[in-house]
Every structure is written in C-alpha cells, then in structure tokens.
Amino acid sequence: MNVTINGAAHELPPGATVTQAVQRLTEIRSGVAVAVNDEVVSRGAWDSTPLAEADRVEVLTAVQGG
C-alpha cells in the first residue's frame, strides 16, 4: 500500500503499523512523535495502529540546540 511519510511517498506492506512507518525514517524511538492524518498517535499505540492506503504520516523528532 502507498502512504505518505513526511511528505514523501512510501510503499509499505498491507497491514503495516505506525511502528513500521517510523522505522522507515529512524531507529530512534525516544523524542519521536507521530501523527496519522493529523491525529497524534501515542507511543503505546504505535504497534497496534494499522495504516491504510493513502494515509498521511508525520514523524517528528526532537532536536536539541539553542
């Protein structure tokens, strides 16, 4: 299935979860927030939240600096 992750098209297997989408971008889980179709998905729900064709996923990571 095709989903958009941070504005770029990605193909994921049917039934892919939020966790799999995050892993496309980073192995880091600390300091990462995810929204699917503009709805925030809590970290505890990543493994159990399936994605659907044409979903929009935004993966945000905290950046330290100043």
Radius of gyration from the alpha-carbon trace, in angstroms: 11 Å
How many E strands? 5
* Spatial strand sequence of the major β-sheet: 2-1-5-3-4
What structural class is derived from the secondary structure elements? mainly beta
SSE sequence, one letter per element: EEHEEE
Number of helices: 1
Mean pLDDT: 93
Q: Could you describe the largest sheet, including whether it forms a barrel? A: 5 strands, mixed
**What sort of overall outline do the alpha carbons produce when their principal axes are compared?**
globular
Percentage of residues in helical conformation: 10-25%
Q: Unreliable runs, pLDDT <50, ≥5 residues?
A: none
Distance between the termini: 39 Å
Instruction: Tell me what portion of residues adopts beta-strand conformation.
Output: 25-35%
Structure, explained:
- There is one protein chain.
- It contains one helix and five strands; from the N terminus they run ββαβββ.
- The protein is mainly beta and 66 residues long.
- A five-stranded mixed beta sheet has the order 2-1-5-3-4, covered by helices on one side.
- It is globular, with a radius of gyration of 11 Å.
